[in-house]
Structures are given as C-alpha cells and as structure tokens.
Amino acid sequence: MTPYTGGFAPVTDEITAFDLEVTGRVPAELNGRYLRNGPNPLSLDDPSAGHLFLGEGMVHGVRLRDGRAEWYRNRWVRSARVAERLGEPARPGPVHGGMDFAANTHVIGLAGRTFATVEAGALPYELSYELDTVGACDFGGGLPGGFAAHTHLDPVSGELHALAYFFGWDHHQHIVINPEGSVTGIRDIPIADAPMLHDFALTERYVVIYDLPVTFSMAHAEKGVQLPYAWNDAHGARIGLMSRESGDVRWVEVDPCWVFHTLNAYDDGDEVVVDVVRYPKRFVDARLDLGGLPTLDRWTIDPVSGKVRQTRLDDRPQEFPRMDERRTGRPYRYGYTSAARDLHDVLYAPDSELEDLPDQAFDNTLIKHDLVRGTQEWRRFGRGAYVGEPVFVASGEAEDDGYLLAFVNDEARGAADLVILSAQDFTGEPVATVHLPARVPLGFHGSWIAD
Ligand SMILES: [Fe+2]
Questions:
Q1: Among the four 216, 313, 382, 429, which has the fewest Cβ within 10 Å?
Q2: CA 288 to ligand 1 centroid distance, Å
Q3: What is the 281 CA–ligand 1 centroid distance (Å)?
Q4: What is the 3-state secondary structure (H, E, C) of 363-427?
Q5: What is the DSSP letter of 358?
Q6: What pairing do the DSSP bridges indicate for beta strands 125-127 and 133-136?
Q7: For the chain, percent helix, then strand, then coil, each to nearest 5?
Q8: 446 CA → ligand 1 middle, Å
Q9: Please, is 117 exposed, middle or buried when counting C-beta atoms within 10 Å of its C-beta (0-12, 13-18, 19+)?
C-alpha cells in the first residue's frame, strides 16, 4: 500500500504564482525564500510510490520581499529519470555509485547557491533561485562519494559539516565545506555493518556520530525490499565523539534505539549534551512503521568515564526538531517540533493507540520547548490541517526573538498556507498567513534562505 495518502498525497502539477494573498503582515525584514523539500512520486503506480523515503523530490518555495509574498513555486528535482519522464533532456553532472536520485529530503543554501540533498550515496542537486534544476553537484570534484541529507553549519566558523554513508562503504565520511562552497575536509570513520545514518550533531569540540542498530540488509535487498535497511540486534548502539581538531573518536555505548533527528548538542564542561528525537526501535524487518513511538530525549555523555545519562525532555510523539541555528553546537534554551497526525499514521501505524483519542490529545500541532524551565507550549491547528517542520528565522538578539515558518494545510480551501508565527507569541495570532494556490503535501525538511 502506498504511504502517499492523506497529507502525503502527491500533487500532480508544477505551479508558478505571483503576488500571493496575505492575511496579516509579512515582516519587511524577511527578504529571501522559504524552501521545503519532500517526496512527491511522479505517479502512484511507480515503484517509488511504495516507500515514503523513495518518492521523487519536489521543492516548494515562497519568496518574500519588502513585506510582500512575491511568488510561490513547486518543482520536481530533475534526476535523469525525472527529466526523461517530463520529456526534458537530462541535466549534466556527476553520479556517485550509480545512485542518481531526485534528492527529496532537505534543501539548503550554501555560498549563494541552493541544493536539494539526500543521503545513502547520492549527490545533491543544485537548483536555481527559481527552483529549476541545474544539475547534480560534487562541489567541483571535492566529494569522493555521496553527500548527506542533513548538514550542520557552525555559526562561528561558517563551515558546513556533513556525514555521508553508503551501503558499499566500510566507513562513514565526515565532510567539511567552507563558506565559499569548497570541500576543505574529508575524514573516513571506520564503521562496521553499513548502518543507516540520517543525522548527527555538532558541538564546539565534537562531531557526534550515531552508530545505531539499523544496518544494510543483504537479505532484504535480495528479497527486493526497496530500502533494505533493517533493525539488527547484533550491531549494538554507540555514540562517537569525534574531535573536530584531531579526528580521534571516543565511542560510548548507549541503550539500543534509533534516532532520525538532532534538536541540538553542546559541550557542558567536560560533558557533552545531545538532544534527539529517539525511538525505542525502527525499521524492524526493514519496515518503516515498526518499532514504537518517539520521545524527545537528552543524552549527557561523560567522555572520560564513558558513562551516558539519558533523560526524557518530552514523552509526546513528535518529530522534525529545529532551533535557532545561531546556537548550533552551543548551549541553548528553545526548541521547536511538529506533531503531524498523518506522519504519525504513516510512521507508527501499528503502534498507534491514538485513533480514538479526542482532537486535543493529538491532532496537528507545533510545540515550543523551553528546555530551561522544562515546559512546552502547544499550538494546535486541528485535524486536517497537517503541519510540517517549523523553521526558525532570527530577528533580534534574543534566542526566541524571531519567526517560525511552516506550511499548514487549509482543509477548507484545499490548499496550503505559509504560516509565519512570532516565536515569542507562539500561540497568538500568526504574524502573517500567506495563502498559496495549491496543496503542499507533508514533506521533510526546509530552510529559510535569506537573499
Ligand atoms: Fe530528516
């Protein structure tokens, strides 16, 4: 059965619309683009429509300028296959390991350029300002292999860090790209069993590597499983603290679990604090939906003793953690997550006991976490108003002085809004609601890319 139903149902058209209707006022300081990537199969009859992680990437974007919502565009990422299906010539560019894929997981700005990214061996695709596909990119030959979906930018050095993995490798690969877009560091970290690695963390001292028991499974590959990564009890679970200076890795054991996403991490004296959305298990028998509900948890790691303290920050199922990225790798107070009903149904259906619960128990909600006070504010949008990842855009100096941007489905209109919230007035009226001309399916990750 296809997971592309409900909020994940794909759209079939590429749209360009100008001068969008706005309720409220778009802050004049927001000059740039809010972009978000996600899987949008060309056809539900395609094999790529069989797995939530394999649909062809489509980037949705809204350009804001001088208090106006200047345009909305949505564009498929033109891998060779997508270009062919759309009757277009293939874009030029390198391919790693035969993995040409319409990057569907994230979209980032780097050195004045725009990149759609994905993991597991494929290269990023560069997009134009207007979201047309330029071509696959290996940063001028700087990447030895593929890239990563998730990257972390050091807000002080301006360096972009990534960790790449590939089923054919006996290592993960740490990549550093400078603010000019050149690869300046490559380090291979030996890792057994070719585990999946979706995200990692960065502190001032360390690159934090999650070596968790979801590994490439030849048995599932031979059975024709499209994404042959499976929970593997034999692999164990550990966290690697790789010194950014020396490259030495200190491994510490943790209880077996799975992590897609980091909220943030930082050095606290000699200890290292790592905040993640953590699952008890995932990819059991290579199935995305098996393995229990996620919680927002904190690991406090003592690299000297090798001891790890695990505490729970929030036991409510949630995903897509984001924060003020001026604080990446540094002590911080606020985090933002999403609890999207349709994501829940796709990711955790067999475990879900939420079917009969009232709206207020679980619908489509953004959560603001105050990690100092240990409190949360919940902003509910209601059933049918599926809401994705909230992206924080800084305004003033204070950590939560800024805006949160997210696409929210307007069920009545059958179309999406770009909702702009004040982070300091999280449950108040939106600062602005930009009315888009079409649905935006639930997707994965996005960025605010200032002009
Ligand atoms: Fe992700």
A1: 429
A2: 14
A3: 17
A4: CEEEEEEECCCCEEEEEECCCCCCECCCEEEECCCCCCCEEEEEEEEECCCCEEEEEEEEHHHCC
A5: -
A6: antiparallel
A7: 10, 45, 50
A8: 10
A9: buried
| pLDDT one-digit tens code per residue, 75-116 | 999 999 999 999 999 998 999 999 999 999 999 999 999 999
Residue owning tokens 């829940």: 344
What confidence tens digit (pLDDT) does each residue in 37-81 have? 999 999 999 988 999 999 999 999 999 999 999 999 999 999 999
* Half-sphere CA count of 109, side-chain side, radius 13 A: 13
What are the angstrom distances between the C-alpha of 409 and each of 131, 238, 336? 22, 39, 19
SS (H, E, C) 195-206: ECCCCCEECCCE
d(C-alpha 258, C-alpha 246), whole Å:
28
- 3-class DSSP string for 266-310: EEECCEEEEEEEEECCCCECCECCCCCCCEEEEEEEECCCCEEEE
Give the DSSP H or E segment for 160: strand 160-164
pTM attached to this predicted model:
0.96
Measured in angstroms, how far is the CA atom of residue 150 from the centroid of ligand 1? Answer: 6
